[in-house]
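This section describes the prediction task in plain terms. A model, or a person checking by hand, is given the sequence of a single protein chain and must write out its three-dimensional structure as a string of tokens. No templates, partner chains or ligands are provided. The sample shown here is typical of the held-out split.
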Amino acid sequence: MESMKLRFRMILLSVGLAIAALGSAQSTPPAQEELTAETKAGVLSGIEQILKERAFVPGLDFNKWDELVEKNKENFDKANDERSFVNSVNRALREFGISHVGLRTPRAATTRRTGRTSGMGMSTTKVNDGLRITQVVEESPAHQAGLVVGDVILTINGQKAEDLNALPTQEGQPATLTVRDAAGDERTVPIVAGQYRTARKDTLNWLDDKTAVMRINSFSNGYNRSDLQDMVKEANEKKAESLIIDLRNNGGGAVSNLAHLLGLFLNEAEPVGTFVNRRTVSSFQEETKEDKIDLIKIASWSDQKFKSARPTIKRFEGKVVVLTNRGSASASEIFASAMKETGRATIIGTQTRGAVLASTYGRLPGGFELQYPVSDYVTLKGVRLEGNPWKPDVEVANGRTSDGKDAYFEAALEVFAKG
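The expected answer:
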């Protein structure tokens, strides 16, 4: 059977949540040139080839794509720009009923590969009198203009702020905002769209002298192995007794980074589950002469287990809590389940997304790209996570306590106190 180690650098476990969360708010592209029928046909043909020849999920027939194309032909024909075309294609792809399959615009594809985009670098939520800023990307134009979380954008270029897409996204384009801060004071903020990194920096903070919080935003762009090792070193050197690993809204990333993080907490090369790809299934059927695809049975049969990486530093051996929510997906779900099944952590929060297929990307005409699955995953104790969100040991329904504290952290402290 094919060794999974040879494929870790190529395989991703990500549904692109971090970029998607900001993308609707500050990196929506301006009006685009009309797509030609030839370009659309080339993209659809490329999708067909990838799905039929390369995509794989045990038991799923990707030949259904022909039927979906015919069913959605009118919507494809009506789409006359990149974004509307991608949306129409992804609506069709969702009918497969799986995660990790989706078309990206050329701009989104470039952002994924480079970790950079252009725009203002903030996300918002709509309120009665404008748009309240809920996130500002470090070193982005919004950050450099002095905008902070909690500010309310009242107007954009003199017009009431109702949609952040009214802001320009092309580098060098200016805008003028009227902003009200938390104290109620209003100010005029000139801002210019520019390039910035989409990745957020991971952090280590201390709740008290014995409890640290490691916030990990992604397993893809921004995952810095050296930084994370330094965090674990600090926790060890300061003799932390407990560590909270915050994976809320972490949409996943590279399998190799997942193995690295596991190695900081588990025994060296400890098996935690099985990736089941096309070759695994084929080898199982050849050896057992069974035609039926029983994913759990195949995973149990396979001796090619996914394992934690060999750590280069002393692992953390204290008590651990992992925080999850609906935005925790793919690699985050595997990490949480592995830490739970090995007895290393208590899981606190809300259930995860249930989107756990290993995937990769295929380039298409016109700069588009397709994310597509190449294998499924089963935990060591026989749980398929795709379509089966991981449920926490301690559920936290609200993010804040009545006195304004992080309810997840408070629940973690209670778990640690109980030993």
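For orientation: Residues 192 and 315 are 45 Å apart (CA to CA).
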